[in-house]
């Protein structure tokens, strides 16, 4: 049975929107998209370039992991990965539940 994120990523983004200054949120968090593994134990967050990947991992990786753990009730592995230039990734925010 596949994991259904039930808006977990959106809840995380919403919490970050409340906690971060608007400019920081709009620059670093809002453009992110994410995909959960089938078992729900891993979230891959897609990032446009290496600079953003490194910066997000260093500045927000721990915070995002904490929020996901708090919302889900168990740890979720967070991985940042580069998006493919050939195939743009749709934001999770607009994805309908599975």
The quaternary organization reads as: single chain
Average pLDDT over all residues: 83
**End-to-end gap:** 11 Å
Read across the widest sheet, the strand sequence of neighbours is 1-2-3
Overall 3D shape: globular
Biggest β-sheet strands, sense, barrel = 3 strands, mixed
- Provide the structure class: alpha+beta
Number of distinct beta strands: 3
Tell me roughly what share of residues is in helical segments: 40-55%
Instruction: Tell me the fraction of residues in β-strands, as a range.
Output: 15-25%
Treating each run of at least 4 consecutive H or I residues as one helix, how many helices? Answer: 3
Compute the CA-based radius of gyration.
13 Å
Task: Give me the strand/helix succession.
Answer: HHEEHE
Low-confidence stretches: 86-97
From the structure above, extract its key features:
98 residues, alpha+beta, three-stranded mixed sheet, 3 helices, 16% strand, globular, disordered C terminus
What does this structure look like?
- This protein is an alpha+beta fold and 98 residues long.
- It has helices at residues 8-19, 22-29, 50-72, and strands at 33-36, 42-47, 77-82.
- A three-stranded mixed beta sheet has the order 1-2-3, with helices on one face.
- The longest helix has 23 residues, at 50-72.
- The protein is globular and about 30 Å long.
């Amino acid at each position: 049975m596949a994991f259904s994120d039930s808006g977990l990523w959106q809840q995380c983004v919403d919490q970050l929107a409340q906690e971060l200054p608007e400019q920081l949120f709009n620059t670093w968090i809002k453009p992110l998209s994410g995909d959960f593994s089938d078992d729900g134990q891993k979230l891959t967050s897609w990032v446009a370039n290496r600079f953003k990947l490194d910066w997000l991992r260093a500045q927000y990786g721990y915070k995002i992991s904490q929020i996901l753990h708090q919302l889900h009730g168990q740890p979720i592995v967070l991985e940042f990965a580069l998006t493919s230039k050939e195939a743009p990734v749709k934001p999770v925010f607009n994805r309908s539940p599975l």
